[in-house]
Each structure stands twice: as C-alpha cells, then as structure tokens.
Design brief:
The protein has about 400 residues and is of the alpha/beta class. It contains nine helices and 14 strands. The protein is elongated, with a radius of gyration of 37 Å.
Length: about 400
C-alpha cells in the first residue's frame, strides 16, 4: 500500500471514531439534561411544599396562641374545663385544607409563683410534590405557652359603707363583687402567691379593733379614747399621708374617739388568709356620712410597714406590688373639721397623690353618685376609674380591675 493510501485509510478511521465519539457525547448530554430537569423539579417542588408547611405552621401557631390565652382567662376553672375551652378556641381559629391528624393538648404547671399553661398541637401536612421522593406528608408540631406571674400582691379594699350604700342594691352588689375578686386570687382554693388583702370600711371615721387600739396606746401612738379614729392633723398633712406616728409628738398621733355608727366594721390589716377576708366582707353594713379622705389615708396605713399595721413590705420594695381599690357612692359630706365638700375634696385629692407617690396603684369606682372628676384624677390612670350608673355593674368593674392587675404575657 502506497504512502498516500495508508494516510487515506488512517484518516477514514479517525473520522469514523470521531463520529462514534460524537454520538456517545450526544447521549450523555441528554442523560445529564434529564437528570438536571429532575433535580430542578425536585428543588421547585420542595420549595413549594416547604412554603405550604411553613404557612400551615404559622396558622397552627396563631390558633394555638388563641387556645392558651383562652385557658389563661379561666383562672378559677378546673383543668378539664380549661382544656375544653382551649380546644374550642383552637377550632374556632384554625381552618386550613391539607392539614389533618390534628391533636391538641393543654398542660398546666405551677412552679413557685409562676403559673404556665402550654398548648401543644401535633398535625400532619399533606405534600404536593414529596410523593415523587417517597414523602407524601410532613409532621408539624407547634407549642404555645402563656405564663402569669403570681406576683405577691398587697391589696387594700377601701370600701364606702355610708348610709347611702343601703340604696339601689349597692351593698349586696359590693359584697358579691369584692368576694368574687378575692376568690380570683385563689388557685384551686389556695393562695399560692402568698398575696395579702386588707379591708378598710369607712364613713367619716374608721373603726379599729380592740387589739389594734391596745397596741397603739401601749406604744404611745394615739390620743383620746375609743375605737374609732377621725382625721389626723391637717396642719402637718398627717391626715393625707401614711407618715408614722411618733410617741410624744401630738400632731403625728392617731386621734381616737367614740364611734358615731355602731354598724361600722373594724379595719382588717393585711393578711394572706383570703377566706377570712371573704367572710368579713359579708358582715359589712351601711351607715353614716362620707369622707373619702379617711378611706384613702387608712388604705395607705394598711399598706405601710409602720404601726398600727405593720404587715406590709416597705414602700418601693420589689417584693410586693401594692394596690388600692377605692369604692364609693357619694360626695364628701363631712370631715372632723369641715362640712364643705370642696374643702374635703382637696384633702382627698392630696391623699390620692401621696398614695400614688408611694408606688401604690390606685383604682377608683364611683357607684352612681360622687365627684367623678376628683375620683378620675385620684386613679393612677384614667382607665383605672370606673364611673358606674348602676350597682349591677360592680361585678364587671371589679373583674376589669383584676384583669388589669393580673397581667398575662405570652412566650413562644
């Protein structure tokens, strides 16, 4: 074979092998393209499924939040009742196609002074594209937890027991509303937080128990005789403050005198025995004229660590939160030194300012009659003043006050 023939033969072989190689690469390209499309489709499908699962999870979370907050609102209910209420709230707030096998459960725990309620939901979300990869559904779990701090409260109920409280069913409604509020501080009948309650019935005086009078007299904190007290000294503003009495300083002392009204019940100092306080409320009777200043001043007294009532924490302490709830149904009519409503109103306003300056949160409730402007300013915030047109509104007002006091926070 000539040289030219050999070269021609080798070139033909090279061209044949080149053609075969091109045909092989064309097959590889098709294979690679097919695999790429499958992977891309998988990523797109997974992204769509992920988006659906994430949306379902957020809807589940919102509904679970509603469920646990509904349970927290039922403070005195049984665990079973709270669970039923939580499930109902969840069902009302969740409706999403493609989510099934829903299972929600409420769990309540008390740890020291914290009550926590946890609503856990397990669910299954169907898959649109996961089936291509052997995944036709995704399990989802959401947890919502609400906690309320059982802060130690020191609460003074300053209650008008004047003669006008005998009208328009005021006294029965006052008793029932305060009793319900006190019951709300209990968890399954127990005072888990150790909160304390004081009750200050007032007209133009406050009555003190024999034991309290004896303590005051033995320590030189009082002047005069009797079981009732009228306004402390105006010149030094002791009538509008909780400044401690000092033995030998007449202007600081508590002026004792005979009680004008036999119906007036003695001041109950702070106590964690809420059951006893509830029983005491049932004994209140109306009688006498009105001096709101006396009520507010002795509300400060029972919330003060000073004698004659010394069971309170120091003002400004973080160990307890102090509240005063003033309920009255009339205008100021009489103090020890005046029959002028405007004069007494000014003393009441000063007492309120001093209470708030001490860190006491003041709520005021006016039943039908009274100085709305003064009582609104007396309250720690405008929304803490309740202007009632009927005694039947007392239960709702007291419930609103304690919803304000019991702050709930949601944690995820």
């Amino acid at each position: 074979m000539t040289t030219l023939a050999r070269r021609t033969h080798r070139f033909a072989g090279f061209r044949r092998r080149l053609g075969e190689s091109c045909r092989d690469q064309s097959g590889n390209v098709i294979m690679i393209f097919a695999l790429s499309v499958f992977v891309i489709f998988g990523f797109v499908g997974a992204a769509i499924d992920f988006s659906r699962v994430d949306y379902a999870r957020r809807r589940l979370q919102d509904a679970a939040d509603s469920a646990v907050l509904r349970a927290m609102a039922l403070k005195s209910a049984t665990d079973e009742s709270r669970g039923v209420a939580a499930d109902k709230a969840f069902a009302e707030n969740f409706g999403h196609p493609g989510v099934y096998d829903l299972n929600g459960a409420l769990k309540r725990e008390v740890n020291e002074n914290i009550i926590s309620q946890t609503y856990t939901v397990h669910a299954t979300v169907s898959s649109y594209f996961g089936a291509f990869f052997g995944k036709d559904s995704y399990p989802v779990t959401v947890v919502s937890q609400a906690k309320t701090s059982l802060d130690v409260f020191e609460i003074a109920f300053v209650l008008d027991t004047t003669g006008s409280m005998a009208e328009a069913n005021k006294m029965p409604n006052l008793k029932s509303s305060v009793d319900s509020a006190m019951a709300g501080l209990l968890q399954n009948g127990k005072n888990l937080s150790g909160s304390k309650i004081a009750v200050v019935p007032f007209n133009t005086q406050v009555r003190l128990s024999d034991a309290t009078v004896t303590t005051m007299s033995s320590q030189g904190l009082s002047s005069g005789w009797g079981n009732c007290v009228h306004d402390r000294d105006l010149a030094t503003s002791h009538d509008v403050s909780a400044s401690a009495a000092q033995k030998g300083k007449a202007q600081t002392l508590y002026p004792l005198e005979t009680c004008d009204e036999a119906s007036l019940k003695p001041v109950q100092g702070l106590s964690d025995n809420i059951s006893s306080a509830r029983n005491f409320i049932k004994t209140l009777q109306p009688g006498g004229y009105t001096n709101v200043t006396m009520g507010v001043q002795w509300g400060m007294e029972v919330l003060s660590p000073n004698q004659p009532f010394s069971d309170a924490t120091e003002f400004g302490s973080t160990k307890a939160r102090k509240f005063m709830i003033v309920v009255t149904d009339g205008d100021n009519t009489k103090s020890f030194t005046s029959w002028s409503a405007s004069v007494i109103d000014k003393r009441t306003a000063l007492a309120c300012e001093n209470a708030k300056a001490k860190g006491i949160t003041v709520y005021t409730v006016k039943i039908i009659q009274g100085n709305s402007n003064m009582l609104r300013k007396c309250a720690s915030a405008p929304e803490y003043f309740y202007d009632l047109t009927s005694a039947n509104q007392l239960n709702a007002a007291m419930s609103g006050i304690f919803k304000s006091i019991n702050k709930t926070r949601l944690s995820m």
